Amino acid sequence: MSATQTKQIKFYNPASSASSDSDDRSDVTEPLYIDPGVAVSERNCCPASPTTVPAKSVLESPMRRAGRRQRTTSIGNQTTTANPSECIIRSNNRTIYTAGRPPWYNCAGQQVEPFVIGICGGSASGKTTVAEKIIESLDVPWVTLLSMDCFYKILNEKQHELALINEYNFDHPDAFDIDLLVDVLTKLKEGRKVEVPVYNFVTHGRESQTKTMYGANVIIFEGILTFHSPEVLKMLDMKIFVDTDPDIRLARRLKRDISQRGRDLKGVLKQYLNMVKPSYANYIAPTMAHADIIVPRGGENKVAIALIVQHVHTQLQLRGFKLRETLANSYKDQPMPDSLHLLHPTPQIKGLHTFIRCKNTSRDEFIFYSKRLIRLVIEYALSLFPFKETCVETPQGVMYEGKRMESRKICGVSILRAGETMEQAVCDVCKDIRIGKILIQTNLKTGEPELYYLRLPKDIKDYKVILMDATVATGAAAMMAIRVLLDHDVPEQNIILASLLMAEIGVHSIAYAFPMVKIVTSALDPEINSKFYVIPGIGNFGDRYFGTEPSDEY
Amino acid sequence: MCTGGSPSSNGSQAEENNEHEQEQAATEQGEQALRTAIGSSTPEEILAEYGKNLKLLTLNSQVAELLTIIRDKNTSRSDFKFYADRLIRLVIEESLNQLPYSDCDVETPTGAIYQGLKYRSGNCGVSIIRSGEAMEQGLRDCCRSIRIGKILVESDANTHEARVVYARFPDDIGSRQVLLMYPIMSTGNTVLKAVNVLREHGVPEECIILSNLFCTPVAARTVVTAFPRMQILTSELHPVAPNHFGQKYFGTD
């Protein structure tokens, strides 16, 4: 009886060394995948990297928040209540929540290279523990954790059989798809979106579904053979080797495999002696020479982790991650850039603005008049796409020289929530247009924009994109959205940013960072206030349109 | 007919007028050749030619595309209506832009003052049956509860003489600004009749704004000569009018 049981369980528990770590911890890391803006079923599509740990403690801010934007969104509330549906996890007496993605580019909109940490070490040496300790102490809002386990090769039938009787060597460099690994890591380092394969240890193949990951400020890459490939080595900014005593590693492995996975002592020892141990000696231990830091005793070594964290902080500061305030304070008194296309300030546009800016306008009228204005903005935005001359035949029998748009491949992308209000107008002027959405919210504590959710048409790089946001103040959210589009290979000159109202500062920032992005707006206001609202402005457009103003405004 | 700057003006305007004369000369030259290309007339030429009350929708590429699609005989009906509605919306918005307004400061939710403006109430629309009715929805989309009157003008099959056979307006139309809607003008006779009816109902000429999509130079001249104080807005001046508009829009072709 015990034999059959063992065999069954063995299907689910790979005879692999490296995979074991992640299996153990799945219950800890799983909640980290949850994205606040997304329904559970849509988790896979969210930009959240699998391990997203904004490290700051969350329980302090309600008092400070009063000075910031006041709004009654769930994000404002989640800091005070530990509602399990919101993505708060507790680990090691700390509260960690999954936030959106903060800026991963500098204030000129240029991609800043993320800091890549490689963690190497033998099986069961505590690599994942070290990675987690680093993430926890790092105090940066966004970290991507990439495991080498994702890159196991797909096994053929014979190899599959070997794996079942503990004779396939999962610890040999040949077991990994190094080319794919290099490709994924390169893209992550460039800040691009990547699809990371999900390895199935039962079928020893890749799942059809992949994990979407983004480059973050910090990328941690861990695995038993992290330092094996010279190409990968070149990409690592910091190389950590976790050196744990072989006896302890064997003891951990035995405990884990026998007590948690129901495997027998003989099999585990056979695998260890025949493959794990020789591989360690031949391929893993020699790479210790590449390491910048060797961490003895793994995750318990607090001093080593503190040193690592300190170094990473210094590096991040040098790279200049910090956005909104820098934006708000630059570019004063400069002429407006050429990429700005302001609608003719006709009396009618001014009249529409009068309606929607007046604080006493009812929501019904607010919606009606903003829709009229949006329609004009969108019509104008369309005129900025390239056109070609054409000649058509008319029913009157004469030829008519006219123009047609060069490409009908146009799609709209709205920046949630306020940008969504412009979708209808785009649909009204372009038949069957595809609409993408990007959710960016301001972190109430840092004032920085954060990316929460992303859904874009599949081949967006082939499209001309109308990016929509109702108001642009500092331009931080719009810049993040443009950056996202660029990361999806949309050429800069194919993007038009359309909005109803912009602050001059926002226009300057965007135009400076992305000079080829056309900016369309119906009005330009000179200032923004300390809460990053445009003055005289329009108030919170989304709140007024959707009727979610904080109740004290009544 | 020209109500723009007169050539005999003096002082600081001398230079401007000089330019103006040159433009006028250029226009006259250009008139010799029949123009078929779109965008053939600059706003200055139009001003010189027809006076300040005839305005063209700003011709950007997008508008040019709309015109092209509407003109193209291979356009499907569904496309035709879709793009015609878009053009109508733009023309209506621009027509509303001609309405009188007064300054109006409002307080925004941020507590700052926005120096805006306010249109007067008491406007109404009048559509000339049948093709003018195609523009009613566009007007409704901009002014939800506006009153709309109608005029039916029929032209005699033999004499081509236009005559009004039906007219129904709001009672107080004489005290309102009137947006007269008629998309195609080839001779301008229909519009002349319609404006005459409006005047009989006490609407002053200067309170009428004519919203039009396609206008021939002949019609423009006729209407401008007859009613120099009426404002006219169109999207294109072209010698060939797309006379199939009403039929294709309503699907009776």
Automatic annotation (TrEMBL), chain A:
The lineage of its organism: Eukaryota, Metazoa, Ecdysozoa, Arthropoda, Hexapoda. One of its GO terms (cellular component) is cytoplasm. Keywords: ATP-binding, Cytoplasm, Kinase, Nucleotide-binding, Nucleus, Phosphoprotein, Transferase, Ubl conjugation. Belongs to the uridine kinase family. Residues 116-304 form the Phosphoribulokinase/uridine kinase domain. This is Uridine kinase. Residues 72-83 have a biased composition (Polar residues). Interacts with RNF19B. PANTHER family: URIDINE KINASE. Residues 1-30, 61-83 are annotated as: Disordered.
Automatic annotation (TrEMBL), chain B:
Pfam families: UPRTase. It is found in: Cytoplasm; Nucleus. Keywords: Cytoplasm, GTP-binding, Nucleotide-binding, Nucleus. CDD domains: PRTases_typeI. Residues 1-31 are annotated as: Disordered. One of its GO terms (molecular function) is GTP binding. This is Uracil phosphoribosyltransferase homolog. One of its GO terms (cellular component) is cytoplasm. It comes from the Eukaryota.
